Amino acid sequence: RKEVEQDPGPFNVPEGATVAFNCTYSNSASQSFFWYRQDCRKEPKLLMSVYSSGNEDGRFTAQLNRASQYISLLIRDSKLSDSATYLCVVKGTYKYIFGTGTRLKVLA
Amino acid sequence: DVKVTQSSRYLVKRTGEKVFLECVQDMDHENMFWYRQDPGLGLRLIYFSYDVKMKEKGDIPEGYSVSREKKERFSLILESASTNQTSMYLCASRGTGSYEQYFGPGTRLTVT
Q1: What is the pLDDT of residues B76-99, one digit of tens each?
Q2: Predicted confidence (pLDDT) at residue A29 exceeds the cutoff of 90
């Protein structure tokens, strides 16, 4: 079993739609959780951290479920510019473990 | 503005060559990382360093070595390049006390 698992997609959604991604992790001792965004042929960039209480940043909402060991990312009112690959990242004691990413395509 | 730079965007080398990939950050970060990214496998950690002259193996260190002589510079060395080292190589840095990693633009290495 992979340490961090994501559905690779692609998720093809129309502009304005709401879309959600999940990510599961295997190590219950994981300490911190993040979503990174990676555009085609570009480097990953931090989108948001994920807190136990859930957190929101504009149209983006991230949630953590420690009991079931998954994190989620919800994007409301999708824009064309949201098209990218979203990487789930889990931090253990000293290293970061990246999921393989979920590809999102927002269609006009 | 935060900046991590890598010496080359694209590199083509022959099997058996020694390859140097350089990464420089201007944020005075203590921690630096080298990853490779392959389709279907995601980012995998090769080596990391938490201080000058310090290095730790990541998940896939075989065939690689690193050097960190100065705080801002972290080099990845392929002692004898092989075709299975064809990949996208990404460098990242992180300040102590921060969770965010900043990535360089990546080097796409092809070994023929």
Answers
A1: 999 999 999 999 999 999 998 888
A2: no
Task: Give, as one character, the DSSP assignment of residue A81.
Answer: G
pLDDT per residue as tens digits for the range B4-16: 999 999 999 999 9
Q: Do B42 and A99 touch (CB under 8 A)?
A: yes
What residues of chain B lie within 8 A of the CB of A94, using their CB? 48, 56
Element (H, E) at B24: strand B19-25
- Calpha distance A52→A55 (Å, rounded): 8
CB B32 within 8 A of CB B74: yes
Which among A43, A95, A101 has the least Cβ separation from residue B42? A101
For residue B39, say if its preceding peptide bond is cis, omega within 30 degrees of 0: no
Q: What is the pLDDT of residue A51?
A: 83
Q: Which residues of A touch B10 (CB under 8 A)?
A: none
- DSSP structure string for B44-107: EEEEEESSTT--EE-S--TTEEEEEEETTEEEEEESS--GGG-EEEEEEEE-TT----EE---E
**Is B103's CB within 8 Å of A98's CB?**
no
Give B105's strand partners. none
